[in-house]
Amino acid sequence: MQHSLSTVRQMWQLLEPVHATLYYAPEAFEEAAALGYATDERWPSYFAYRAAPLGPAGPRLVNALFYSFRPQMVQRYAADAWRTAVPERVLAARSAGVDRALRRILGDRIGSPELREAADLARRTAEAADTAGRALAAANSALPWPDEPHMVLWQAATLLREHRGDGHIAALQAHGLGPAESLVSHAAVGAAPQEVFGSRQWTDEEWGAARERLTVRGLAQADGRATEEGLRLRTAVEKLTDELAAAPWDALTPGETARLAELLVPPVLDIVGTGLLPQQSTLGIGLKFDYE
After folding, report:
1. Residue 255 lies in a domain
2. Domain that holds residue 55
3. Is 284 a domain residue?
4. What span, in angstroms and rounded, lies between the C-alpha atoms of 213 and 218?
5. pLDDT band, residue 281 (cuts 50/70/90)
6. Is the per-residue pLDDT at 287 higher than 70?
7. Is residue 285 in some structural domain?
8. How far is CA 102 from CA 29, 61, 97, 235, in A?
9. Which residues touch 182 (CB under 8 Å, ≥6 apart)?
């Protein structure tokens, strides 16, 4: 491995806002509404947009791959997703929405040499991702690459994000953390307040039961905070996640990775500066783990 785990984590944190534009930009909601999806909340379009590369996947498969969402929530939003629009139309809509959003947000950066260079480096990394055993990454890797640099960058960010997410699920399962426990343990180490994790729609009773299971294992205290063992286990999960996400970055030299990080800062600041993205999320971006 050519890169430190802190570098692998840094690159995820830089690329995540590029990918997440899809789920918050008004242009993406407009495209979803044109297909017939409700847009008074973000979940109808979220489930359709994110699952569309899988084809007409049912809620059981979507639940398995999205992992931390309450099954009843997935059933509510994913069961009828393809009756509203077939996946091919959803894929076209998500591309159109991201294209329009990034053109608005990035302005004069669109078509710039710097953005093209960033897109080329990100694509090289994404194309190096081994998708064996990683269903969401594999589904996205099968999509054709767009021509415009800003869309290449978005697609690379998306593929790498799903590659990491597939590995993260493997890391959670390797450490005995089920869907609800994965969220409770993350809240326990301070990734975000409990109410932020409420977006996954687990009931108070289900959240409490998951916390009790962690308490029995010596991973959580009665007030929900992690024990030393709980912090150790969650740190091990994050370390394994970063290790499993590291291989694609070997396609770039350390100098090229540092260059990509440098090139990403201005467009990412543009995206974050819109205020579209939430300040806190279930991902725990910015949370520090001491494993190097």
Report:
1. yes
2. 5-273
3. no
4. 9
5. confident
6. no
7. no
8. 14, 30, 9, 34
9. 67, 68, 172
Chain centroid to Cα 76, Å, comes to 21
pTM tops 0.85: yes
**pLDDT for res 191:** 84
pLDDT 10s digits, 161-184: 999 999 999 999 999 999 999 999
d(CA 79, CA 74): 7
Q: Please state, as a whole number, how many other Cβ atoms lie within 10 Å of the Cβ of residue 29.
A: 21
**Rounded to 5 degrees, what angle do the CA atoms 40, 187, 3 make?**
100
Is position 287 within any domain?
Answer: no
Handedness of CA 80, 51, 288, 290 (dihedral sign): positive
Q: 275: helix, coil or strand?
A: coil
Mean pLDDT, rounded, of the chain: 95
Q: Is 88 exposed, middle or buried (0-12, 13-18, 19+ CB in 10 A)?
A: exposed
Task: State residue 195's pLDDT score.
Answer: 86
Residues 6+ apart with CB under 8 A from 292: 4, 5, 6
Segment 180-200 shows an average pLDDT of: 90
Residues 6 or more apart from 69 whose CB is under 8 A from it? 63, 179, 200, 201
In 3D space, the residue among 86, 118, 79 whose CA is nearest the CA of residue 102 turns out to be: 118
User: Of the candidates 125, 52, 50, which has an alpha carbon nearest to the alpha carbon of residue 86?
Assistant: 52
How many domains is the chain built from? 1
**What is the chain's length?**
292
Rounded-to-integer distance, Cα 66 and Cα 16, Å: 16
